[in-house]
Amino acid sequence: xxxxxxxxDDDLAPFASGQLTERSLSYLVRHAHRAFVRRLAEExxxxxxxxxxxxxxxxxxxxxxxxxxxxxxxMRVHKASLTPTLAALERKQCINRARGDDRRKIHxxxxxxxxxxxxxxxxxxxxxxxxxxxxxxxxxAETARRVLEAIxxxxxxxxxxxx
Length: 163
Prior knowledge:
Layout: H1 7-16, H2 25-44, H3 51-61, H4 68-75, H5 79-91, E1 95-99, E2 106-110, H6 112-132, H7 138-162
Antiparallel strand pairs: 1-2
Helix pairs in contact: 2-6, 3-6
């Protein structure tokens, strides 16, 4: 086997060798996610919300009247993991949970307060994304987005195959 000294081979070394280093995709994605969350959390403090609550509101702003199961599917989380955060949003008077004719389903509706937060809080998400992409060529950003979507698809497919 011949050894190459090209910069490209060096760039791929952490991925090919199986080592989880600071240059591995999993590390970088996690680190980027934490940076996004940390920055957004700082912006939410004055509104008494945390990032998990914001994430739920963001989905509900795009489609009210979802059930808890539908919300969990859209967020790609387990239904039960939403329960404490939904309870907190209800206490904060941002949502109402109501049972419909089918008593097994819990429907989620935004309150006036929850709806009003959209206009105030959505710009923070946009600002966060814009700050993350500052100085990055739009083509590179689009390539990164496509690669991350493919990674999610690959890993979700592998998880489904394991079930």
